[in-house]
Amino acid sequence: MNEILNHSVHKPEQLVKQLANQFGFHYCGIAAAQPLDEDARRLEKWLQQGMHGQMYYMERHFELRVNPAKLLPGARSVITVLKNYYPEQTQQTSAYKISKYAYGRDYHDIIRTQLNSFFDALKTQFGNINGRGFVDSAPVLERSWAQRSGLGWIGKNGNLIHKQSGSFFFIATLITDLVLEPDAPLAKDFCGSCTRCIDACPTQAILPNNVVDGSKCISYFTIELKEMLIPDSMQGKFDNWMFGCDTCQDVCPWNRFAQPHQEPGFAPVPAILNFSSKDWEELTEEGFKEIFRHSPLKRSKYAGIRRNLQFLQQPPDSL
C-alpha cells in the first residue's frame, strides 16, 4: 500500500485524506491547531446558563476543550474525519423509538480501532509524528473542528451538516504535530431561514440563534440523565422516543441526501428492527444484557431503559 500511495499522491494533505478513506472514513478535513477562542466564549455562556443540565463533565477540563495544545504539546494540525451511520432499514413504526446511531455495535469501539489504524498508517508515511485520537470520549469540540476544516456547518439543531450527505455522521478527531495545509471553512451555513428542526422538536429544546438547550433534549433525558425520575414537565412530550431522539435530523431537508452506510459493525441488532413495544416491555435484565452487550444502549443500563419505558407508558393526564 505504501508504494501505491507514494506514487499516486504528492501533497501530504491528499495522502492524509486518501488514507482516511482507506480506513473507513467518508470525509476528512484539516484545520490548524489553534485555540478556539470564539467557541470558548459560546461554551462558557452555555454552561453558565445551565443548558448542560446534569452533564457536569462538560464543566471540567475547560481549557483542554478549547486549546488543542493542552491535549498535545506541539500540536500543529487537527484532522477531523466523518463516518456515516445512516441505516438502510429502520424500526417498526409502532415500536418504541431508538436513535439510529445506536442500531449497531458501540461506535466508540469501531471508530477507535479505525482511527488508531489510520494514525499508524500516517506514522508509516510521515515518520516519527505524535498524535492523539479522540472519539467522543475526551474534552474535544468535534463539531467546531469539523466546521473549521470545511466539512460542513453547524445547523440550528446543533448538528454538523455536510452539504452533500446531511448529518448522520459520527465525528472523530486526531490532533497531531504533523504540519499540514488547512482546509478552508465554508463561507456560510446553508440552513437559511429554514426552521423545520425548531418547529419539530418535541420539547422545544432548539432555541433561536443556533442554541440548543441540552437540558430539554430528549436524548439528554433518556441517555445522559442518571436520576431515576424524569421531570413531570416532560410528560407526554417524548413522541415515543425510548433512547435518544432523531426528530431534528429526520426533518432536516439536507438529510434527503443521506445514503445507507456500508459499515458491517453498524448493522442493526436484530431486536432493534424487530422488537414491538410489547417485546421491549417484557424484556428481562438478563435478556437485555445478552442482546445489547455490545450496543450503545448499555450506556443507560437496564434500569435506565426501564425508567424510560415506564415514563412513556404513563398517560399525560395521569399527573
From TrEMBL:
Gene3D superfamilies: 3.30.70.20. TRNA binds at residue 226. Keywords: 4Fe-4S, Cobalamin, Cobalt, Cytoplasm, Iron, Iron-sulfur, Metal-binding, Oxidoreductase, Queuosine biosynthesis, tRNA processing. [4Fe-4S] cluster 1 binds at residues 191, 194, 197, 252. One of its GO terms (cellular component) is cytoplasm. The keyword Chaperone does not apply. Cob(II)alamin binds at residues 65, 136, 157, 160, 171, 219, 245-246. It comes from the Bacteria. It holds the Pfam family Fer4_16. Its cofactor is [4Fe-4S] cluster; cob(II)alamin. GO terms for molecular function: 4 iron, 4 sulfur cluster binding; cobalamin binding; epoxyqueuosine reductase activity; metal ion binding. The active site is at residue 136. GO terms for biological process: tRNA queuosine(34) biosynthetic process. Catalyzes the conversion of epoxyqueuosine (oQ) to queuosine (Q), which is a hypermodified base found in the wobble positions of tRNA(Asp), tRNA(Asn), tRNA(His) and tRNA(Tyr). Monomer. This is Epoxyqueuosine reductase.
